[in-house]
Specification:
Radius of gyration: 17 Å
Family: Belongs to the UPF0260 family.
Pfam families: CxxCxxCC
Protein name: UPF0260 protein MWN34_05505
Number of strands: 4
Largest sheet: 4 strands, mixed
Strand content: 5-15%
Bound molecules: iron/sulfur cluster
InterPro entries: Puta_zinc/iron-chelating_dom (IPR005358), UCP006173 (IPR008228)
Organism: Ancylobacter crimeensis
Number of domains: 1
Structural class: alpha+beta
């Protein structure tokens, strides 16, 4: 008989990003879709700003990529996250599970690995559901500056704690 230690710490608390298996790595993504918003970079300062415009492959309701396995064939500049990339780029949202683990922090209650439910990220208002103005294919490039937003780099008020404001759609 095999005994399972149900009190064992979960993998994201015991492993570094580099130590995770491919399955653990993929499961860590919370599915918020924030990183799939179009970002603009200032030519002089190289500062990155988010917009509320979605990548052409972003499903605005599920907040997932429409063709994740082949995404770079359609979107060559889609950033493939690795442990090194997570540590190097400065624009991952503060809620991003990869960033949290890289910073030695725990996941929030709405992460599906804790809640057991992939809808809690939407209910907590952390995903981009209902917040995407449109696809990069539908919004003229000349209008992109008008779509700069700060919310992807913020945690929604109250989302850090269970019982905080919830959004249901
Ligand atoms: S921001 Fe991080 S957790 Fe959210 S979808 Fe992107 S990679 Fe996944
Ligand atoms: S190609 Fe897919 S994973 Fe990459 S930014 Fe676009 S929607 Fe996100």
């Amino acid at each position: 008989m095999t005994l399972i230690d149900t009190d064992a710490a979960p993998f994201w608390k015991t492993k570094t990003l580099d130590e995770m298996s491919p399955e653990e790595w993929e499961s860590l993504c919370d599915g918020c879709g924030r990183c799939c918003l179009v970002k603009l970079q200032d030519e002089d300062s190289e500062a990155i700003a988010y917009t509320d415009i979605g990548c052409k492959l972003l499903n605005e309701f599920t907040c997932a990529c429409r063709d994740y396995p082949n995404r770079q064939a359609h979107v060559p500049d889609c950033v493939r996250l690795t442990p090194d990339v997570v540590r190097e780029i400065g624009w991952l949202p503060p809620s991003c599970a990869y960033r949290l683990v890289a910073e030695g922090r725990d996941l929030y209650w709405w992460h599906h690995l804790l809640s057991g439910d992939r809808d809690t990220i939407h209910q907590a208002g952390v995903s981009v559901r209902g917040r995407v103005a449109g696809s990069e294919e539908d919004i003229p490039f000349a209008d992109f500056l008008d779509h700069m937003v700060r919310w992807p780099l913020r945690l929604p008020k109250g989302a850090a704690h269970p019982g905080g404001p919830r959004r249901r759609r």
